[in-house]
Amino acid sequence: ADEAVAVLIKYAFNTLNLNQLFCHIGIENTGSVALFQKHKFRIVGTKKNWVKNGKNWSDVHFLQLLNE
User: Fold this and answer.
1) What pTM value is reported for the model?
2) Burial class (CB in 10 A: 0-12, 13-18, 19+), 53
């Protein structure tokens, strides 16, 4: 997963010339949040009750990486 994220970032910024990348990750998915933060993604917001899990709603973090 670590290598895949690194390749994606490099391709998105160097080949596609994108300005930014973003993703939504469930707040309970601490492993994925840590993986993206390792690659300098920052949590820029939390969406409350965004995903329905059975009868309950869960929050998600909104992470963003700018091409500097």
Assistant:
1) 0.89
2) exposed
